[in-house]
Amino acid sequence: MALDHITLASFRNHAATRLDGARQLNLLVGENGAGKTNVLEALSLFAPGRGLRRASLTEVAGQSGQGGFGASALLDTGDGGEPVKLGTGMSPERSGRRIVQVNGAETSAISLGEWLAMGWLTPAMDRLFADTATARRRFVDRMAVAIEPGHARHASRYEAALRERNRLLSDEMEPDPAWLDSLEAQMASHGSALAQGRARLLGSLTTRLEELPDAPFARPALAYLPSGSIEEEVMLSQWRSERGRDRAAQRTLSGPHRDELGVTMAGKDMPASECSTGEQKAMLVAITLAHAELAARGRPGVLLLDEVAAHLDPIRREALFDRLRDSGTQVWLTGTEPAPFEAILGEAAVWRVADGVAEPV
Ligand SMILES: Nc1ncnc2c1ncn2[C@@H]1O[C@H](COP(=O)(O)OP(=O)(O)OP(=O)(O)O)[C@@H](O)[C@H]1O
């Protein structure tokens, strides 16, 4: 089933952890600080990006590994062929950079997105709707990358060109117009691809959310609010015409780095940030599930749900488990106690985690 035979070596508080016998539904149970989220974080590094905590590699490395760490898993691609061996890690001897391997051959983190579709929901995202626009853009981009891995490249190239334009705009020396021309051309090429990727993602998420029943999850209505045009030519001429204004502000005031994700609770027509904590959680769950179902088409899907069940009332919890079963996606859940998961205990693979050690139950 998707990921199995998982190993963690010197990964935060896991000196040497092995998880065998994974199923579609998987549950890690243990006290606070036991190391459950650390396992999910290790799994999240089998996807492009910095993982579910966006931690630096040195933060992740445990004390037992001389400054490095490693994680591996076998991926069942579902086509009846041999499982694919995924590995990721960092070693100070190898310049401290992230190493990614597929079947023993080194590759880029971005290419992991071709093998599996990864999504997650963590308690840190509970305030997403009231958080900064940057956090919401990151959320949208991460979902887009899981569906179109090339989105990550457009995001990073846009950011790099934008940083350089901002550096020139804030420099004491008058910026070289030819250099600005070239940077704005790169920003327009990658920025329009980035914005169009966001628009496509939110369009298909909206369609998927509309297919689902309202109850028991609050149905969110998503709106992509770009900061301006998402067409390359229009973006380019806008930045050219705004050079004077941007020079005065010492930074680029418009572009995909200022886009917003609008979320309202459908039916109530209320901004998500003003909904109750439980409603916000239910909307986040609805978006995460809709996305997981979209992303998993054609590739194995893996969904990491950290402490989700405990925050839902019993009716929503049951509905969540039903949806997870039907999704075909592999799911990894965590909780401090097994009681809220009673409905799935018979079918899920369960591990008890304590002090960085995971034992099958
Ligand atoms: N680099 C590291 N090296 C060793 N231990 C670490 C490292 N980073 C974090 N830890 C330890 O990992 C533990 C936290 O693990 P984790 O976040 O997985 O807990 P959890 O089981 O999900 O708990 P909760 O239920 O509270 O969310 C803490 O004890 C922390 O000290």
Q: Would you give an account of this structure?
A:
ATP binds at residues 30-37. This is DNA replication and repair protein RecF. Keywords: ATP-binding, Cytoplasm, DNA damage, DNA repair, DNA replication, DNA-binding, Nucleotide-binding, SOS response. With 361 residues, this protein is an alpha/beta fold. It folds into two domains: 1-116 and 301-361, Rossmann fold; 127-298, RecF/RecN/SMC, N-terminal domain (Glutathione S-transferase Yfyf (Class Pi), Chain A, domain 2). Helix content is 37%, strand content 23%. The protein is built from nine helices and 15 strands. It has helices spanning 36-44, 57-60, 133-147, 151-170, 177-211, 232-241, 243-249, 277-295, 314-327, and strands at residues 3-11, 14-19, 25-29, 69-75, 84-90, 98-102, 105-107, 117-121, 220-225, 260-265, 270-271, 301-305, 330-335, 349-354, 357-360. The strands form three sheets. Strands 2-1-4-5-6-7 form a six-stranded antiparallel sheet. Strands 8-12-13-3-14-15 form a six-stranded mixed sheet, sandwiched between helices. A three-stranded antiparallel sheet has the order 9-10-11. A hairpin with a 4-residue loop joins strand 10 (260-265) and strand 11. The protein is globular and about 65 Å long. The two termini are 19 Å apart. The model has no long low-confidence stretch (mean pLDDT 93). Adenosine-5'-triphosphate (ATP) is lined by residues 12-13, 30, 32-38, 59, 61-63, 334, 336.
